Amino acid sequence: MTTTRPPLPPLLIPTPDDFVGMAKLSTIAFKEKQGCESTQESEDNQLKAYRQYASKYPGKLQNCRILKDETSGLVIASCQLQGPNDPPDLSFPSFMRHELSPGEVYLEVIACHPDHTGKGLGSHLLKWADDHAKNVLKAEFLSLQVMQRNIGAAKLYERKGYVVTRNPHDGGCLGQFCTGLSIFCLLGFKYWKILYMVKDLKGEHSPSKDTASDEPPITKDPTKE
């Protein structure tokens, strides 16, 4: 006997009323990546970034979507893109912020509350990211970063069409080493290498398949695990 998955909640553009819930979700979803920050410090940092977007970069919020529990009204999943006219993720230190290449849209955040995993929310948001990046932001490719040790997430992204490639802004061997050391220190001495993954949105063979590398890129991941 097959079970029918309940319908997914609607995708919503976040408003200031959602910022606290989004900050709490991010803190819960990525708790083990807080490093030296306390839970409250991490939540405050996220909340400050969302408020900056609303006051200085309102277009950034148009490139975000959230899903809310229809009973409690709590934010249970979120997705955030960096488009061509957007600032990078302001909750990160400046040296960890992503630098876009021509034609690129970057998947900064995809988060799901632990109590709501396995319901298709992540795949729903990834599908929205594909469509929005290609049809609204006119991207040629979509990218993300994931910790190399997070094998499950990397395999998921591969199934969704992402392939590992070299980050063009990785700063070479020295840059990769410095970034790895910074990540290791900032994220609680748990992570070192990051994979930069790319999905071609032009319907053509992705050049990243020809340049795939196990070398970590420079910037970040604390979002995708």
Task: Characterize this entry briefly.
By secondary structure, the chain is α+β, with helices and mostly antiparallel strands.
List keywords for this structure.
Aminopeptidase; 6 strands; alpha+beta; 225 residues; single chain; 6 helices
Characterization of this structure:
- The chain is α+β, with helices and mostly antiparallel strands.
- The protein has a single domain, classed as 3-Layer(aba) Sandwich (Aminopeptidase).
- Helix content is 32%, strand content 17%.
- It is built from six helices and six strands, in the order αααβββαβαβαβ.
- The protein has helices spanning 19-29, 39-56, 58-61, 121-136, 151-159, 172-186, and strands spanning 64-68, 75-82, 104-112, 141-147, 163-165, 194-200.
- Mean pLDDT is 80; it is low at 204-225.
Task: Explain the layout of strands and helices.
Elements: H1 19-29, H2 39-56, H3 58-61, E1 64-68, E2 75-82, E3 104-112, H4 121-136, E4 141-147, H5 151-159, E5 163-165, H6 172-186, E6 194-200
Parallel strand pairs: 3-4
Antiparallel strand pairs: 1-2, 2-3, 4-6, 5-6
